[in-house]
């Protein structure tokens, strides 16, 4: 039996179909393995569809095309609308389905909890988490949107500091200005224009003074300083490169503030809240200082900010799946290799599924760097495009590296008898019949939501 024929006797399950999952599926399929990709959503685009703000039109479309080209092939069965841990029990998948291996590529979807005792009682009222906020922003224009609805308030507080928190604070300001421009001045500007040109430029163009709009600016509150924001990766570990990167991060943040008119409050952590009649009305912060990279709260340095809306954007962690072990928020791994999941012979984890962090370090190895020119001339789209494309390519190359070893391990396992292969086909066929799935391209085509840019063209 040649190796491709032998590999065909193995079925591998991948959980999650986005950047990491599609890369892994493609490599396995090209090696002759049969693969089932289980995806909890209708579409396999993960953070690209639901986490990347919808003004990144080209970037989103290109990443989606790439995922499609990897998943739409003969050896891959795509099984959407199927959440492992809910629709199928994880241990059932491991023990009873007969897969030679199971690869977790389920990313990081659970918002890290805002560390204030009992604050979650205001969830989806005065407190919103980043993932559901961006989901709402990206999908609220769809006719059949049935998710949560948010009304953005004046004086919104965004707690965060990473790239995603900048997206959140931009969304808040763009939505507020878009609405108030219409209410106060009868001026209609779409969000794509506000995002691209910047709020400051558009107000100038229409000769509108920001104060006339009666908007309470959103505040981005970060526990470190602008220099510490992960907006620029240093070229290498030398002091000079780190300093250059810090200065670029500071400059970038200033540009963002100039364009989108939000306030930035560094070196502060949220510690408590004030409520009136069961509503959150203020958040209590404490000033901190950074000593040797560590954050130290300063005694008696509390201050309150009045607000009706807090958006927590302090990171995402892998969603826990029953049957797997975790250490705090990270998936517990075996010690000897970075992709072996603890407690199993044939379960592997790749991409952001382990800690929630992608392999950003890798970008030094492969990376193109953001240049000063890009920062000055095309701040938002270009800089972010470069970061995300680079980051996703790094995830893909890391996945490819891991898959080389995983392929070897799978091929060393016992080949599966035809009856097991057939059982997997039958079970996945049954899911396909239930949800009306015929093939990858017609399914993704049918379920791709209407895009805002298309609606605005009409
Ligand atoms: C706005 C934004 C901010 C970002 N910030 C960061 C950052 O700070 N740090 C960083 O490292 N990367 C960040 N990224 C990069 C991003 O995480 C990667 O680009 C990429 O999306 C990760 O790919 P993935 O396949 O590992 O995970 P995901 O894109 O999250 O894909 C996981 C897939 O698994 C599916 N899934 C999840 N659970 C299950 C289940 N139980 N059963 C079946 N299917 C499941 C999901 O639906 C999804 O399709 C950011 C991206 C964006 C768009």
From TrEMBL:
<protein>
    <submittedName>
        <fullName>NADPH-dependent glutamate synthase beta subunit-like oxidoreductase</fullName>
    </submittedName>
</protein>
<dbReference type="InterPro" id="IPR036188">
    <property type="entry name" value="FAD/NAD-bd_sf"/>
</dbReference>
<dbReference type="InterPro" id="IPR051394">
    <property type="entry name" value="Glutamate_Synthase"/>
</dbReference>
